[in-house]
Amino acid sequence: MTDQKEMHESQHHIVSPVTYAIVFGALLVFTALTVGASYVEMGIFNPIAAILIACIKAMIVVLFFMHVKYSSKLTKLTVFCGLFTFLALIGMTLADYISRAWGQW
Amino acid sequence: MDHISPVIWQFLVKWMTNFALFPPEASKVAPQMDALLFFMVLVSLVGLTIVILLVTSFCILYSKERHPVAVQIEGSTLLEATWTIIPLGLFLVMFVWGALIYFRVYTPPANAMNIYVVGKQWMWKAEHPGGQHEINSLHIPIGKPIQLTLISQDVFHSFSVPAFRVKREAIPGRYTSVWFEATQTGTFHLFCTQYCGTNHSQMIGDIVVLTPEDYKKWLAESTSGMSLAQNGERLFASLSCNACHNTRPDARGPSLANVYGSKLALSSGGTVLADDAYLRESILNPSQHITQGYAPIMPTYQGQVSEEGVIALVEYIKNLNSNYRIDQTLNTTDLLPEGEGKTAPAAGGTTAPKAAPQGMVKQ
Amino acid sequence: MSATIVSLPDQSTARIPKVNFITKENGLLSWLLTGDHKRIAILYLVSLTFFFFIGGALAGLIRLELLTPQTDLMATDTYNKVFTMHGVIMVFFFLVPSVPATLGNFLIPLMIGAKDLALPKINLLSWYLYVAGGLLAIYTMATGGVDTGWTFTTPLSTHYVNTNVLTTGLAVFIAGFSSIFTGLNFIVTIHKMRCPGMTWFRMPLFVWAHYAASILMVLGTPVVAIAIVLVALERTIGIGVFDPTKGGDPLLFQHLFWFYSHPAVYIMILPGMGVISETISTFSRKRVFGYTAVAFSSVAIAVFGFFVWAHHMFIMGISNYAVLVFSLLTMLVAVPSAIKIFNWTFTLYKGSITFETPMLYTFGFMGLFTIGGLTGVFLGTSGTDIHLTETYFIVAHFHFVMVGGMLMAFLAGIHFWWPKMTGRMYPEKISQLAAVVTFIGFNFTFFPQFILGTLGMPRRYASYPPEFQVLNVFSTAGATILGVGYLLPILYLTWSLKYGEIAGNNPWQATGLEWQTQSPPLTENFPATPIMDHEAYDYEWLENQKEKEVASVG
Amino acid sequence: MSDSTAIAHSAHDAPEHGHEEHPAYLRHHFENVEQQADAAGFAMWLFLLTEVMFFGGLFTAYLIYRNWYYPAFVAASHQLDIFWGSLNTLLLISSSFTMAMGVWCAETRKKSGLVLCLVLTFILGIGFLGIKTIEYKEKIEKHHVPGFHYSLNSFLNPDSDEAAKKAGDQPLPLDMARHTEVYFSLYFAMTGMHALHMIIGIAILGFMIYRAQAGAYTAGHVTFVENFGLYWHFVDIVWIFLFPLLYLISRHANT
After folding, report:
1. Please, what's the b/e burial string for D160-193 (b: 16 or more CB within 10 A of its CB; e: otherwise)?
2. Among candidates B76, B99, B160 on the partner chain, residue whose Cβ is nearest the Cβ of C390
3. CATH for D174
4. Which residue of D69, D156, D170, D175 to mutate against B (max B Cβ within 10 Å)?
5. pLDDT of C317 strictly over 50
6. pTM score, two decimals?
7. C-alpha to C-alpha distance for C393 and C376, rounded to whole angstroms
8. What is the pLDDT of residue B340?
9. What angle do CA C36, C40, C42 make, to 5 degrees?
10. CATH number of the CATH domain containing C451
11. What is this model's ipTM?
């Protein structure tokens, strides 16, 4: 089936060092940005900005350093599954904690 | 007769006379829950019968002797849909019905009589508002909604009364509650059903449901002389809570009169309903529950007051309709043990604060 | 009952193939350092049986103690340790690895036409982890035991017991990694090692079920691992994450614990369902009714299985809204199981049914799992859960699903594939007897417990009010019968290793690829890479093959 | 009843896998090198999935308690030095970069480049752990390790504590101050688990450097390097989240 094809699709795409360097640079910039942002008083947006930047950083590491951009659908699906279950764990647990305070029981 | 050994005979007699198949329905919610239970048993029996009938009849009709060559069938979307949708529908009915009962069991009516229950390894301690203490038993009147406010001093326990069909975990660090209204007099089992350590199976007791007259008698017999609120009052004074929570113009803490059940504005923004849980939390973790306009100076009483003490304080504050009693505690170190009622007369609100002896007030 | 599909080679001339995975190498080391999935499966089978009998002996002690209302056989403390160890050993060292690690290990590569699992060394490592964990658990038991219950509920496990929580936790942690590696290996194998022509929808349903279970193993187990690590830290240095006096929330532990331990029951039951799909098809000579529905219901159980964990906590003070959500999702997860039951039933329709031992166990499974599943709905419904949870009702429900379901399926599978694993048949008559005895004993043991639960008898009680005694005596009596039912297979299966009839390649005339090679198989499984040129459970293809064979011989 | 004809029959139609030249590293049960590499890579990803869930439990705990005890988290996070944190982030990102370059070197069969990259990664990893040790040591000295010796001094009397003073902390009420212990529990659990992964990674790196010098990874078989790269990048990603969560997002008192 598709797996045979997938296997060939995932045939080594060698990412060039230039890409790596650009990614490295971007990571450094984002690190500086997140540290800088933490010194600015933004209220509720402080954590949002920090998490957002962390997500972007993680995404480019996954896409380029970990080659997911060039990998098979299966790898992409795997990453997605992990993310999904991770969010399920956090989201469903927090749902309990958040709604505990609702209403009067 | 001769062939049956006496031991077995004894067993048989014992079995016949002491053999339960279904628990008594002794509370208002019990018949409702049993209705759902019977519905589910019915659905299960029908489902099981269908499966068993189908399997047996197929086994007979299509055994190799009768039916030597199998007919290959791929499947049937219609049938798949049938046995997806019908069970789903039945399960959803159970879900809705069950949720209704769940909310009924855990939503006490406003007029319920509140009894505090503290679970600890390995006993249940009940604190009645009138000051009666009980261990491993609970006396309640028939026909009156009873709310239990549960807390555990150590590990998870679970307060289970099968005859009432209610059960609630007593968890450390937080109040939980459950309510019931007994409809039968008698003595019923109380179990701890959450495994809680070595003597888990000895953490049992009796729920004694009494007629109103018997209940009154029992209340009078087992009084400890002071109501729970009075215990709280004494504790309130001995912990010098009144040093701040008083009615003087320079009081550092908010007035506690009529605070129970009101919506409080917090200094962190937002409002909160002052219920039992809130009162408990603000005694033990005050800094997260500062009323608007007050400084976070209240010390924590975590580790200084037992759960029973907290309960007494909560009960005291709950019944505080005015600051009269608080001001009274400022005036005298000698509390009246023969205090007349649970709460102070409402007239206290107008009483001007009297000069407090400075020695009483710490800091 | 006389009709049978068994066709054995002529016993006077038949021989077990000289070269097979068992005879290929000799000596203990060749087993202990093997990478062969079949040998590892045998290693698992032997060690699992060992742990099963320890767990079973503990269960016997529990039932003996409960014969009388008083605590007369052992002190409450001992009783607590006994049921804790029974739970720990049975759940983590028997049920979770039972079908996947033995039958799954043995059969998945054979069924999909691969030479081995994708990661043979990891497979061996996972067996070593399993044994290390198991021995640690036994060591724990020998040096004083542990009395937290298999759920390690905080703060009991962190602050209020002084038994061997740490070593038991470590044992479970290690066993968890064993299970992760097994699951990971299966997923990779199923994705990457299928033989030419073996598309997803030509795979046997056994493989689908294992695929679903493996997903749960890989994604669920690490969460319980971190929960156990936090418990260990709490016990040793007193970090406050689960300690209410330090501001932690003990319920968080239960969230993390049940995030794994609820999916874990699907890890236990899904592979069993896989076995049932195989046996019911083979013994009714028919393709499984609604193949795709059964396959997808496995995956549906795996996916929904992740979203229902808090139904273990309905009365524990979680938010009532969360109760609603989790109760609703629990209802959804019940549906795929119902789908499976009905599809198996209709597989019988217009089949040509015979009643060999695996089929008897299969019928046992279907009946008992139906009861177990339906009573699960009683507990998933938030209202009735209040009354029934934490009582013997839940004990009975769990055992109906796990012992009545999973163990029946395990025994069905062991009998079904015994000829493939050993090359010899088990004795048919006595094994049919064992199946019937097990079924009767099981019902005697666990059905009274439903009534006990409805009466309100709490679980984990060493003593109980005297009016519950009758039912408890029934239960203990039944357990005795059940014990005989489990001892019998051990005896006659061991006997059959030497004296059983030679089975030949395909005694059941089954269609799976595993039956198209010799028994016991070669180390490389197949003489040459097979090609799957037909659908799963294609009995016409099998007939054609036989005709061709006859023709070519003639 | 001889061996099933299905096998014998099908063997003829099988693609001619058997006639290809088999490299030594191809294990017997795989058809070809791609299948082997694919399977190993996929297995590594699945393993990383379990790691994600492993840390998932800790992140859940962190989020819950941060919402419950925000002032304690603010005060406690002031005890962490952003300088060290940023420097560590820098080191780890750099090591990720050198690791990625190492994978590239292996793929393009540059032996000395690979060894250099691996050694750099190794050094950067050690550097990270070194800084972590400095940070841990400070915590131990201040009695900020949860447990029996935990001290609330920095939070009850912020003036006595340099870091707290610098951040302009107000004294926390006792009950809230006690909850800083939860923060440090999570801090040590999370960074400790992360450091454990680093230590395992560094140990494997050491082994890889030894093997790379022998030219083991520059002969076309790069699976091991690639998979280790995935692991190393994953550890990097964990830190990418830990850094803002523990060091940055709780700097300001009023959220």
Report:
1. ebebbeebebeebbbbbbbbbbbbbbbbbbbbeb
2. B160
3. 1.20.120.80
4. D175
5. yes
6. 0.91
7. 10
8. 39
9. 120
10. 1.20.210.10
11. 0.89
